[in-house]
């Protein structure tokens, strides 16, 4: 049975994969571990490799931040496949606004626990979703460790990756407001897909995965 490692995005946990059909695979759900203050996405990826015993030949699926971490894992060990959903592969695919946020790091002033109180902005940033999915996403936000959230924002903004490992697959929505698709290269595009399409466009994503994952 093939091992599939699932990495969620910032403000989420592996419940974000609830509509993704991975029956028949040995699933490893990644939970956030405490980062060191000076960790980068690359050094944090090594911690995930060590903590979860991610080995060569594994399949890693990453959503949003999880996709960026999946890329860093694939740079360190020879993964069977690296699959990105609503994420980016290199710094060139970042929104131009990220450069401004690096110069003026207002996120450092973010009060402890603010991430968990941002539920009102979920639909604005993530896109339209059902009441059930909105409740789920807000609940995941509330349970995101505040220290991890602040660290992750900084690590994302300062990610400078230029390398795309082998066997990388990427699916993205053309209505993604977090990572605008016009900056994304070599991805399968889902029309009307938002940053939260892993929840509300799972049917298309599952069909795409069937053509990628081994039987």
Description:
- Helix 2 (65-76) links the parallel strand 3 and strand 4 (81-85).
- This protein has a single domain, classed as 3-Layer(aba) Sandwich (Rossmann fold).
- By secondary structure, it is α/β, with parallel strands linked by helices.
- Helix 1 crosses helix 2.
- It has eight helices and six strands.
- Helix content is 34%, strand content 13%.
- The chain is globular.
Describe the structure concisely.
By secondary structure, this protein is α/β, with parallel strands linked by helices. It has helices at residues 41-52, 65-76, 97-103, 122-126, 131-142, 146-157, 197-200, 202-210; strands at residues 3-7, 26-29, 59-63, 81-85, 168-173, 188-190. The chain has a single domain (3-210), classed as 3-Layer(aba) Sandwich (Rossmann fold).
CATH fold annotation: Rossmann fold
**H/E element string?**
EEHEHEHHHHEEHH
Beta fraction: 5-15%
CATH class: Alpha Beta
Question: What are the SSEs and their pairings?
Answer:
Blueprint: E1 3-7, E2 26-29, H1 41-52, E3 59-63, H2 65-76, E4 81-85, H3 97-103, H4 122-126, H5 131-142, H6 146-157, E5 168-173, E6 188-190, H7 197-200, H8 202-210
Parallel strand pairs: 1-2, 1-3, 3-4, 4-5, 5-6
Helix pairs in contact: 1-2
């Amino acid at each position: 049975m093939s091992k599939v490692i699932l990495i969620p995005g910032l403000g989420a946990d592996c419940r974000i994969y609830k509509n993704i059909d991975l029956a028949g695979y040995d699933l490893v759900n990644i939970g956030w571990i405490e980062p060191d203050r000076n960790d980068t996405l690359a050094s944090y990826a090594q911690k995930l490799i060590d903590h979860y015993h991610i080995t060569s030949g594994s399949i890693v699926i990453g959503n949003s931040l999880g996709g960026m971490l999946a890329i860093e894992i694939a740079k360190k060990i020879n993964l069977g496949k690296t699959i990105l959903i609503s994420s980016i592969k290199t710094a060139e695919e970042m929104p131009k606004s990220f450069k401004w946020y690096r110069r003026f790091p207002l996120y450092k002033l973010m009060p402890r626990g603010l991430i968990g109180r941002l539920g009102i902005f979920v639909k604005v940033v993530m896109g339209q979703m059902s009441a059930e999915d909105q409740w789920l996403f807000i609940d995941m936000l509330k349970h995101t460790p505040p220290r991890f959230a602040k660290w992750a924002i900084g690590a994302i903004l300062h990610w400078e990756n230029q390398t795309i490992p082998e066997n990388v697959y990427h699916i993205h929505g053309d209505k993604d407001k977090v990572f605008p698709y016009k900056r994304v290269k070599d991805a399968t595009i889902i029309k009307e897909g938002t940053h939260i399409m892993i929840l509300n466009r799972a049917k298309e994503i599952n069909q795409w995965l069937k053509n990628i994952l081994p039987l």
